[in-house]
Amino acid sequence: MESCSKEKWSVAEVLQDFLHSVFPAHINKLFDEARELKNLDSATFFLATDFKILSDALSRIVKEGMIGGQLISYLNHPETRHLSKSIIPSLFAKCIKTGMQYYNGFLEEFLYNGDVKSDRQHEFMIWDLSKSKIYKATDFEYNEDLYDNLEFEQKFVLISDLIPSVWKKEMVSKLFQTRKIISIMISETRKSFQLPEMQYEIINDASENDGTR
């Protein structure tokens, strides 16, 4: 369990709860409403399709080792969001909401504290390179126009593939630059500086509008 990322574990718990409680209740409802075998046959057809989608999704997640924003983006794929007569959209939406609670926590930690110590599995889109001692910022894709070779930029790197699709990449880039400016202010003044409450409320509103809260 310790080797499993927080976000992936939270998604697994949602699926476990679904199989143990929601799914049996759904089956009972199908049988109660079907009344005739021909109706039951139609209902179970959609159910079988749902389980095929779920099985394929889980297989791909495990095979490709998806984590963090990559996992969220996969579950948020348009093809699964708009399925009719399906339990998949609501199930995946719950998985996304639960997983994003950790992502929002990582973002809050980064903006307020200037680190992401709780991200032990590199799930978050911003990596602390000082933990690994292997990589340097220039090993990753970066914007040369915005890169100033500061201590902050040598320590942190933004991994675009781990940005969840429920967030806009432009917003994330601005947040990264905001924290960089805060770090510069701290290094110049030697005084602790935190994001104003109003700015954090703006971030919260953005998350709510994207359905991540």
Present the secondary structure layout.
Layout: H1 6-34, H2 37-63, H3 68-75, H4 78-81, H5 88-113, E1 126-128, H6 151-155, E2 156-158, H7 169-189, H8 197-209
Antiparallel strand pairs: 1-2
Plain-language structure description:
The chain has helices at residues 6-34, 37-63, 68-75, 78-81, 88-113, 151-155, 169-189, 197-209; strands at residues 126-128, 156-158. It has 213 residues and is mainly alpha-helical. The chain folds into 2 domains: 6-99, no CATH class; 101-209, no CATH class. Strands 1-2 form a two-stranded antiparallel ribbon. Helix 1 (6-34) runs antiparallel to helix 2 and helix 1 runs antiparallel to helix 5. The longest helix has 29 residues, at 6-34. The mean pLDDT is 78.
